[in-house]
Amino acid sequence: MKLRITLLVVLLCLVAAAALLFWPRDHQAGEAPPSLSTAQLDTVARGRALVTLGDCEGCHTVRGGAAFAGGRSIPTPFGTFFSPNITQDAQYGIGSWSADDFWSALHNGYAPGRKLLYPTFPYTNFTKISRADSDAMFAYLKTIAAVQVANREHRLKFPYSQRWLLAIWRGLFFTPGVYASDTQHTAEWNRGAYLVQGVAHCSACHEARNALGAVRSKDNPSGGLVLSWYAPSLSVPAEAGVQTWSEADIAQLLRAGIVTGDHQGYTFGPMAEVVFESLQHTDAVDLRAIGVYLKSLPVIAAQTQPSRVGLTPASIPIVMSNGQQVYKDNCARCHGEQGEGQSTAAPPLKNSRIVSMNHSVNVVRMVLYGGYAPGTELNPRPFGMPPFYPTLTSEQIASVLTYIRASWGNSAPPILPDDVEAGMTGPLW
User: Fold this and answer.
1) Whose CA is closest to 424, among 348, 375, 352, 366?
2) CB crowding 392-404: b at 16 or more within 10 Å, else e
3) Average pLDDT in the 92-117 region?
4) Domain co-membership, 31 together with 147
């Protein structure tokens, strides 16, 4: 048995070495669908717009640290990754990189010296970026002053700490290739598709992944778990699908972080950060193109939630009664006696997609830790929700959420105290 395991390990090493040495790198330059608003900008300004839409600063800046100097922790099931320094520091940053090196990282997932990059850096999306746009992004990053901050080593579980295994992962799950326009659609649709699939890398969060971290949306259309939050599916109208929305409402949500009226939309958790740091600064024409593309995504029904164990039929009335009392004492003042909400001050809970999603981690974390919508130009003083973990027990939080998810037209599975305990992890966005 030990001999077989040894032979298997040797074989995997040989396969990985062969893949690393002989796997061809893609050299397509591609041509990005043009933006009517940014096409006339100079290279650095266009690069800044792309870097902002990609929210590069958000990932590559530790809280309280220098912009783009890295060090931000990214917890995953495989361990904790730390974003690298991408300032112009020659020792720790990308000050010694060439435009070819930067293109290779974005497009092929290689750092200089053919160092394999982990796909927490979403080169699986960035590979769609055209060479001209990559060069513009690099030109902008060249203007970022050098910050001498050493990069932190990732803290990964075995065997994920073995970087050479990425050669096998790439062979299974990654094919480099720039975005190719679809002639069956308009220029605006193609611009939106290019931004969503590539620069903004939306699927990096909003699509489910397999046990090895690769997107598996073809056989599972659900959203993805990211930073202890659930990024809802963009194809499921009961989650984050916007197929029936207007392009104006979609752009409003992305720019302001909140939209009311015929369609209700609120951003929170990591998405609120994306709106604050990235999307509110994106050109309106590009936001409309994103909306055009998102509206065209195929509609997929929400998956049936499996039956839960732990809440008997006889206990449901008791839990509902307890939850109703907790709601009256703690929630009704802002969200209304019937969950009707108060415009932008407190989202309505009645017929709420956020409340009724099968995945309950987001509502659990909102009650536990509270939070704010992003402060944006269109919503400069957002109202916030206080955290309730200091004052409510797990049982009380579970009961009030069970009550909310089964009242005023909502119809969603109950929340158990174990679900609340499971939500007490990860960054507190």
Assistant:
1) 366
2) bebebbbbbbbbb
3) 97
4) yes
Q: What is the DSSP string of 197-257?
A: IIIT-THHHHS-B-TTS-B-TTT----EEETTEEE--SS-TTTT--TTS-HHHHHHHHHHS
Query: Do both 260 and 336 map to the same domain?
Result: no
10 Å Cβ neighbour count for 14? 10
Round to whole Å and give the CA distance between 250 and 270.
18
- One domain, residues 89 and 111: yes
Integer Cα distance of 360 and 257 in angstroms: 21
Written as one letter, the residue type at 343 is S
d(CA 137, CA 43): 8
Does 101 lie in the same domain as 45?
Answer: yes
Residue owning tokens 């090196």: 101
Q: Which domain holds residue 153?
A: 27-173
What is the rounded average pLDDT of the residues 218-225?
A: 67
Asked if 395 and 373 sit in the same domain, the reply is: yes
Q: Is the same domain home to 203 and 106?
A: no
Judged against a pLDDT cut of 70, whether residue 218 lies above it is answered with: no
The answer to whether residue 5 sits within a structural domain is no
Both tokens assigned to 181: 């326009």
